[in-house]
Specification:
The chain is of the alpha+beta class and 679 residues long. It folds into four domains: 242 residues, no CATH class; 78 residues, Distorted Sandwich (Calcium-transporting ATPase, cytoplasmic transduction domain A), CATH 2.70.150.10; 125 residues, HAD superfamily/HAD-like (Rossmann fold), CATH 3.40.50; 130 residues, Calcium-transporting ATPase, cytoplasmic domain N (3-Layer(aba) Sandwich), CATH 3.40.1110.10. The protein contains 20 helices and 22 strands. The strands form four sheets. The protein has a seven-stranded mixed β-sheet with strand order 10-22-21-20-11-18-19, sandwiched between helices. It is elongated and about 120 Å long. The two termini are 31 Å apart.
Amino acid sequence: MAHNHHHEQECCPHEHEHHHEHHDDACCEHGHHHEEENPKSRLIKIAATVVLLIAAVVIEKRCNLPTWQLLLVYLVPYLLIGFDTLKEAAEGLAHGEAFNEHFLMSIATIGALCIGFLPGAETQFPEAVFVMLFFQVGELFEGYAEGKSRESIAHLMDIRPDMACVERNGKFENVSPETVEVGETIIIKPGEKVPLDGVVIEGNTALNTVALTGESLPRGVAEGDEVISGCVNLSGVIKMRTTKSFGESTVSKIIDLVENATENKSKSETFITKFARIYTPIVVFAAVALALLPPLFSGDFTNTFATWLYRALMFLVVSCPCALVISVPLTFFGGIGGASRKGILVKGANYLDVLAKVGTVVFDKTGTLTHGQFAVTAIHAGQSDCKTEIADSQNTQLSSLNSQLLHLAAHVEHFSTHPIGAALRDAFPDEATDGCKISEVEEIAGQGIRAKVEGKMVCVGNSKMMDAIGAKWRDCDHVGTIIHVAIDGDYAGHIVINDKIKEDSADAIAELKSLGVSRTVMLTGDRKEVGEDVAQKLGLTEYHAELLPADKVAYVDEMLHSKPSTLNSQLAFVGDGINDAPVLARADVGIAMGGLGSDAAIEAADVVLMDDKPSKIGLAIRLARRTLRIAKQNVWFAIGVKVAVLVLAAFGVATMGMAVFADVGVTVLAVFNAMRALK
């Protein structure tokens, strides 16, 4: 059955462009304040500049031109490739934001153009053009990498339906999904996207939910099943009654959630932003000091100034923290995109930071580690022992006695609306078609139901019912709700009904332990024996049962206050219900089940698992740790190369080419490394 996914924030139906993340830091604005240049036109401009630069070098070698004429020759390729950068620098100055990447590049290259006019200095015209050229190449690669990052998010945007086929006045018409109201009937044909959340009222089909959950196996739906928007209809035609408006639908909320994920910056990103704002002015003043102080103290200012000015210009080029302020946010953006492909929605880069350092995971039980639905877990007919346990009665060969017991109980509970009745019917689905006659159905309050099945009086209920009819019942050592069955007053056996543990819950706990999560705790409102049984089966380190929502908050508060000050000390809480919302909000990182989860839980959570699989928690932690690892690699690589070249520049060993590599080259390599976070 498909379940509604409810997600935080309402998405404006008209805002579906992919919002570019703006690096509002001091260094790299990279054209984000103006219309982005087409990559193709930028590539053509780079190619034209290379040709003109080669031509200028040939003219310099063959024609003995005076310095000012040579400057004019080199100004052609310089202005072609550098005009946008100079313009950005001028705009930054006009707005009081002088210390950005464009300003540093402009000062460095203008200085290189002018240095040849100083006494005893060599011309640096090719270097000036080369710095601007390499800078544009770097921007081209950055744009490509950002495009790749956004493609990983854009696969979610592809789930947005363009139209809905709605029934109005007896006719079907194609309209915008935004105009469809709650309660209207829509039809979805094979190959079409489900435009709104709703309930199937006619037909059955298989749905592709891969864009929402990362689950490749199609999900079957039939009449009465809930369907979420964003799925693709694979086979049959279905009619649906809408249950939510487009703005409230799953697809809108997912898109909105992912688009706004980068608003919550990680601590690493915030550090880089602050670092750039303080660092850049220091670098500019240090370069000025490097250009002026050594010549002043040398005693020969005129002859040494050109040398130290050249070193100061290299210092400026090298010291741009561009690699950091581009690659770190890009790494986190890639991490969020990679996680969304796996059906894990992370609401912000700061939550990746926390996820990577999780050392304690606290679970709700019902709907999180278990399915949250009653199911038959064991059948013990007659006076047999209580060791026969079944995982799924539909897929397990039952003994004839056990099968008969289940058959009779399912018939008696045929008209019951209680979850126990539904569990018995689900375990024996053939009861509706086997033609057995049922009569004299009577529900006895607080005891159970009795009815005549094929002339036999069958009583299905608790021990009180058995005592009332004089049947000698026996207890069961299995945990769960025990349903006793008597036929014509004689005890026939019992059926155990319990909330089934999810298939991957045990693997999820084992994986968390292998990742270094030292404490796995379950908090449940269920009975102590039920909590103990689940905790033992899954290998949890501790459990607390019979808790009210306020008790869960108190336990989590206590754990938060007593957590160690070690590296991996963050606390994650995993839940799905309305009662879990306060704890999800209180934990260092709240993880909600997105399939069965309530609106309140998903709104309060920081991470949403779209397919309700606990095993995705370990995957989310692995992805977060990998993202942080890549970000740290970029930081240390960029700082290491820059420091090395700065030292060389101060001693006059570095060339302008090395300086350019230390800035733009390092940035390109860091950006490519950041793209690994997408995979």
